[in-house]
Structure formats: structure tokens, C-alpha cells
Design a protein that fits this description.
This protein is α+β, with helices and mostly antiparallel strands and 270 residues long. The chain contains 3 helices and 15 strands. Strands 3, 4, 5, 6, 7, 8, 9, 10, 12 and 15 form a 10-stranded antiparallel β-sheet that branches. Strands 2-1-11 form a 3-stranded antiparallel β-sheet, with no helix packed on it. The chain has a two-stranded antiparallel ribbon with strand order 13-14. Strand 4 and strand 5 form a beta hairpin.
């Protein structure tokens, strides 16, 4: 994940736009008991965790132009690992007796810059993480990604990224911020998940993705048409927690100090 952040910063600098995620919160660290998920068959193994990140398999992003620099997009992939502080967490039954798939819909603008670069601004969207006892996802047939139970969902608040085009290929990185609006409290512990931050790399035209993208004609029911962009996407979702009481107290104290200093300066000016 650190590599992707460095890469994002480099691409943003190269495209003339420096920025970072607006979301700055403490990572959520907890466990997931998938035997408590809807439809579970009690063969999902032991409780997974503690973890703070869902690491995704290379998935697919379909972008359709909706006019000018505006695009609508859909993404789907599946979880390969749980991680804690970038270290893999033991989950032997994942993709064996159960799977976790993710689907997102979003809108964004892609603004061309000089030198074959573009800046990306994600406007918003929604996403769901699904639990399924049948490991049946298939990119080529566009099936098996939404046939389970949603155990975590939310809204995409926004994001920034950049892309470069060279040698017939496009490579980019996008950093998104999400708000968790619903999750299964029987699965996740503690019940303090609030949001998250995701970094996704995007590739188009790379030979290494030919086997993944070659048979894709639809993404979540959306047909790939001439003029659309079909990317291979690799990324993760780092969950964040509701600030604890001590954090709120520090924030309030800080605001109080700012207010005091402002009033003091006002009296000195007068």
C-alpha cells in the first residue's frame, strides 16, 4: 500500500496536480466471524482477524463517457487477503468454502493534461461487499459477484488520481474515500466501522492483463461497447473507525484553543 501511495503522489506531481485523501482517521482493527453471515454453512473456519484491510484481486473497471470529461464507471473484484498493517492475516477458508466479492458504481471526471497525462476526480458512488458460500465469481461470464449477501456497504465520497498514456498503454492510480453506511454487526467486531480509504491501480493495454480482460464483454450487467475503457484494477480497502471519546475531546479542546486565540487577537487589534 505504501508503494501505491508513493506512485499516486508521483503521478499527481507529473500531471501538475498535488493532492491527498481528505480522510484522516484511525484505522479500524477488528475481527470477522463469517459463520454469522447470512446463509453461512458453518464451514467458513475460525474467526478472521484482527485485520484492518481487505486486499482485492486484480479486477475490472468499465468506464463509459457520459459527455465531455465525465464518465460513469463500474468495478467488480473479489477479496484475496485480510491484512493488518500490510501483513497478511490467516484466513484459510477464504476462496475455498466461501468468497467475498465487491461491486461499485461511481462517477468521475478525467481531465487531460500535457504530456499524455490526465487527472482523475472521483465525484461519488456506492459499493457493496458480498459474502457467498459458493465460490463462483467469473469475470468472463459476468456472474457470481452479487449473488451473495451484502455484509458491508457504503458511499464513495470522492477521490483523486492521475493516469499516464505511453506506448499504447494507460496506467493510473486513484485514491478514494468511502463512508460505511451499513454493515453486519453479527459479522464484524467491534461495531465501530465508520469509513475507509482505498488505493487502486488501473491498467489498460498491458499484455499481463490479456487473460483477465480478453473474455470480458460485460461488467455487472453493463455491456462493453466500442469507445468504452476496460481497465484491470488492483487495490484494497482500509477500514477506519469511529473516533473514540478521547479523540472527540482532543478535537473540541483544539477548537476551543483556536477560538480563544482568535478572540485574543481580536481584542489586541481593537
Amino acid at each position: 500500500m505504501k508503494f501505491k501511495k508513493v506512485l499516486l503522489a508521483s503521478l499527481l506531481a507529473a500531471s501538475g496536480l498535488a493532492g491527498q485523501s481528505a480522510y484522516a482517521a484511525v484505522n479500524w482493527s477488528g475481527t470477522a466471524d463469517y459463520t454469522a453471515a447470512p446463509g453461512a454453512e458453518n464451514d467458513e473456519g475460525a474467526v478472521v482477524g484482527p485485520f484492518d484491510t481487505y486486499d482485492m484481486s486484480p479486477g475490472v473497471v468499465l468506464l463509459k463517457n457520459t459527455g465531455g470529461t465525465n464518465y460513469s464507471g463500474v468495478y467488480q473484484s473479489y477479496v484475496t487477503n485480510h491484512e493488518l498493517a500490510s501483513i497478511s492475516v490467516y484466513a484459510p477458508k477464504l476462496n475455498n468454502t466461501y468468497e467475498l466479492t465487491m461491486v461499485a458504481n461511481f462517477t468521475e471526471t478525467v481531465t487531460p493534461q500535457t504530456g499524455g497525462a490526465s487527472t482523475i476526480s472521483v465525484i461519488g458512488g456506492t459499493f457493496d461487499l458480498y459474502f457467498d458460500t459458493t465460490v463462483d465469481r467469473n469475470f468472463g461470464s459476468d456472474m457470481g459477484f452479487t449473488d451473495g449477501a451484502s455484509i458491508l456497504s457504503g458511499t464513495i465520497l470522492g477521490g483523486d488520481g492521475a493516469a499516464v498514456s505511453a506506448g499504447g498503454m494507460i496506467f493510473g492510480v486513484t485514491d478514494i474515500t468511502v463512508q460505511i453506511t451499513n454493515y453486519n454487526t453479527a459479522v464484524f467486531e467491534p461495531d465501530t466501522i465508520a469509513g475507509g480509504d482505498g488505493i487502486f491501480t488501473l491498467r489498460l493495454g498491458s499484455p499481463v492483463d490479456a487473460s483477465l480482460l480478453g473474455s470480458v464483454t460485460k461488467v455487472n450487467g453493463n455491456t462493453v461497447n466500442a469507445g468504452d475503457f476496460l481497465f484491470a484494477a488492483d487495490g484494497n480497502l482500509v477500514l477506519s473507525a469511529v473516533p473514540e471519546a478521547e479523540t472527540y475531546a482532543m478535537m473540541l479542546a483544539g477548537l476551543g484553543l483556536v477560538g480563544f486565540m482568535a478572540r485574543r487577537r481580536a481584542r489586541m487589534v481593537v
